[in-house]
Amino acid sequence: MYFELDEVTGSLIQSQNQFYEVEVRCMDIGEVPEGRKRCKFLVVGFADSTGTLRILSLEPETCLQRISTQALPSVAHSVTLMALGSRDPESKCSDDNLYLHVGLENGVLLRYLVDNVTGALSDSRQQFLGTKAIKLSKVVQKGQESIVALSNRPWLCYKYMGQYRVTPLSYDSLSHANAFSSERCPEGIVAIADNTLRIFSVEHLGDQFTQKVIRTRYTPCKF
After folding, report:
1. Per-residue pLDDT, 86
2. Where are the domains of the chain?
3. Is the overall model pTM greater than 0.90, yes or no?
4. Domain 2-200 carries which CATH code?
5. CA–CA separation, 59 vs 130, rounded Å?
6. How far apart are the two ends of the chain, measured CA to CA in Å?
7. Are 199 and 135 in contact (CB under 8 A)?
8. What is the pLDDT of residues 93-128, one digit of tens each?
9. Residues of 63-79 as b/e, b for ≥16 C-beta within 10 angstroms?
């Protein structure tokens, strides 16, 4: 079911609904572009035999009508629809392109370029992140729209120096993560690791190095 906030009364109004024979596993709506009242697209992942992704329209005259369908190698566990890059329209690193990230249950991360007009998917890229199903969360890092991807370990998807990067974070394995903002930590990440709640931030965007602490029985003397 799709709802919109009425501008006059301030109440939620159900604009449209749609029924499917297969289970809806995940969905996402992109941010509303400047100068518009709504995002044009809704992305829905279905748990059918192999996994299917559908782009639906959110325009009033064609609300929830299918625009395109994409077959997947596995069932989608989570999806995000966003424009990666700087939030500042005057920044040289700003990117008007709309990207669709799909975290599959087999641990593969897919990325598509979404046509802003037609909603067609193109420029497919994929990367294996781990053996666990991938959870995706939208965050902001150094003023840029970014994504945290969780599998066996956390990863950060972002734009750096005009290039798209998927970098493993030097941090503990996380089960959940989301954006966090406060006066002391304006671009933080709040996460759950085992039975603890963590709030942390990424210090050096662009670093390709990770580390892991391994306890040894004796002091190492030589490598």
Report:
1. 59
2. 2-200
3. no
4. 2.130.10.10
5. 37
6. 60
7. no
8. 455 788 999 999 999 999 999 998 888 999 999 999
9. bbeebeebebebbbbbb
d(CA 43, CA 26): 8
Among 18, 67, 65, 20, residue whose Cα is nearest residue 46: 20
Q: What letters, b where the CB count within 10 A reaches 16 and e where it falls short, cover 159-171?
A: bbeeeeebbbbeb
Q: Which residue has the tokens 């602490």?
A: 213
Give one DSSP letter per residue of the chain, joined into a string: -EEEE-TTT--EEEEE----SS-EEEEEEPPPPTT-SS-SEEEEEE-SSS-EEEEEE-SGGGTT-EEEEEE-SS-EEEEEEE--EES-TTSTT----EEEEEEETTSEEEEEEEPTTT--EEEEEEEE--SSPPEEEEEEETTEEEEEEESSSEEEEEEETTEEEEEE-SS---SEEEEE--SS-TTEEEEEETTEEEEE--SSTT----------SS-----
Distance, CA of 100 to CA of 67 (rounded, Å): 15
The first and second tokens of residue 156, run together, are 């950060």
90: left (phi over 0), alpha (psi -120 to 50) or beta: alpha
The residue type of 46 is: F
Is residue 104 within 8 Å of 110, Cβ to Cβ? yes
pLDDT class for 49, splitting at 50, 70, 90?
confident
Identify the residue whose tokens are 């992704």.
Answer: 53
Question: So what's the pLDDT on residue 95?
Answer: 57
Residue 198, judged by CB atoms within 10 A of its CB (0-12, 13-18, 19+), counts as middle
